[in-house]
Design brief:
By secondary structure, the chain is mainly alpha-helical. The chain contains 16 helices and two strands. Helix content is about 75%, strand content about 0%.
């Protein structure tokens, strides 16, 4: 891997007045369709593990497989895109994602589920490569907004993906159906890249340095000790660890608090997607103009802290249509070893039927608002601030290190937050996460300038 960054974007492509939407829209479209496939699977991933008799540790390993593989694959794929261009690496990563979803659909064992996630993680650097393409066509004044484009695609994916998953489960009891639908959308993203994406890194700008995977490790270590970007990278890792723990545990948490299964979780993700889209399309640009990246980082950390504390205070009240026997039967359709597999081994007690109402569900939806606002602001703000601090001479290395640390946090989060979930109770990860976010906010207030 090389430390040589892509050169600054041409004035024709980006300017202080705004983005070149002609270049940005194809990147947005392919990212959205790709994320759509991912978000069809995300609310159901723990059910894939449970369906094959997973122990609690195996459920966590299933959730960690993809980000752990990305920790190895993303820096290498990013460096290869610096050498060979964005388009061929996008196609390779999207094809691997397509194959990964097919493997998941045909999975007949937990090992095959994990293999499908590992394969996609090793070669599926779709988002990182799309961000690199956006960095090619933006400058300092438009970069935060440009990086927000991928966030908006994520928001729309969270809006429509879970809705598609809900529809698939309504018409089929098989978890294979959502996986095959996700594969279909992934195939569409391949076609979009082939026929609509124009290469953003021409041959004369590409690096000729050979990619050495172990060099990525030394580059990350050097940047972590840097006075300019080291703390920002630590902030990126820490907030992602807490936020990905929220994503992984939300399904089990909603089951315990409000009796929600796949369809209910899908509605929560849709709600989060609506908020993310609003933040990415309407909020980032004016906030960045008024308060800058530092202000957005502080606001994001505060919003995440408040959201996590609110989640920890969620009352246990099942929704009005909750019937415990029906939920147990629905779980038994997914878990061939019986309902006790989910309720006993994974230690997620179902709420009692008495006291049913809307308060538990309303509380969760309200708590998701600040969490989604913070999530929509934090990564574009941190990445943009890091590129400005490091300068163009370190641009590529910094974004690569940031993506790698996000993957590392995603790999660690299911284990750390899962242990808290099982040892201290379903609300413990969110209480700990809220307190930790307040600590990060205080740290960022003092040292981020």
């Amino acid at each position: 891997m090389t430390d040589t960054p892509p050169p600054a974007a041409d004035d024709s492509n980006a300017s202080a007045s705004g983005l070149s939407w002609e270049r940005v829209l194809p990147i947005f479209a392919l990212t959205f369709v790709d994320v759509l496939g991912l978000t069809i699977i995300l609310p159901l991933l723990h059910l894939y593990a449970v369906a094959f008799g997973a122990s609690p540790v195996e459920v966590l390993l299933t959730a960690a497989a993809f980000p752990l593989a990305q920790l190895i694959g993303v820096p290498v794929m990013g460096a290869l895109s610096d050498r060979y261009g964005r388009k061929p690496l996008l196609i390779i990563s999207q094809v691997s994602t397509f194959i990964g979803f097919l493997l998941l659909g045909f999975a007949n064992s937990l090992v095959m589920v994990i293999v499908s996630r590992l394969f996609d993680g090793l070669f599926g650097a779709n988002l990182a490569t799309a961000q690199a393409a956006l960095s090619d066509i933006t400058d300092d004044s438009t970069r935060a907004q440009g990086l927000g484009v991928t966030g908006a695609a994520f928001g729309l994916g969270f809006l429509f993906g879970p809705a598609i998953a809900i529809g698939a489960l309504e018409f089929s009891d098989s978890l294979a159906m959502p996986a095959f639908i996700a594969a279909a959308y992934s195939f569409i993203s391949i076609l979009l890249t082939l026929f609509t994406f124009k290469e953003t890194l021409p041959p004369e700008r590409r690096t000729s340095v050979r990619v050495r995977p172990f060099q990525a490790v030394s580059t990350i270590a050097r940047l972590l000790t840097s006075q300019t970007v080291g703390l920002l990278l630590v902030l990126m890792f820490a907030q992602q660890l807490l936020f990905y723990g929220f994503e992984v545990l939300l399904g089990l948490f909603a089951l315990n608090r409000a009796g929600l299964l796949g369809q209910g979780n899908g509605l929560i993700f849709i709600w989060a997607g609506i908020i993310l889209v609003i933040v990415q399309t309407r909020v980032i640009k004016p906030l960045n103009a008024r308060y800058g990246e530092r202000g957005m980082v502080l606001l994001a950390l505060g919003a995440l802290a408040v959201g996590f504390i609110l989640l920890a205070l969620t009352p246990q009240q099942p929704h009005p249509f909750y019937v415990q026997d029906m939920v147990e039967r629905e779980i038994s359709l997914l878990a061939p070893s019986g309902t006790e597999l989910l309720i006993g081994d994974i230690q997620v007690p179902l709420p009692p039927e008495r006291g049913r109402g809307v308060w538990g569900v309303v509380w969760i939806f309200a708590a998701v608002v600040p969490v989604s606002v913070g999530a929509g602001l934090i990564r574009p703000a941190l990445n943009s601030l890091m590129t400005k601090r490091a300068g163009m001479g370190q641009f590529g290395a910094v974004l690569g290190a940031s993506a790698a640390l996000v993957s590392a946090a995603n790999a660690v989060a299911p284990v750390v937050m899962g242990v808290l979930f099982q040892s201290l109770g379903p609300t413990a990860p969110f209480l700990v996460g809220g307190v930790a976010m307040f600590v990060l906010l205080a740290l960022a207030w003092r040292v981020v300038r």
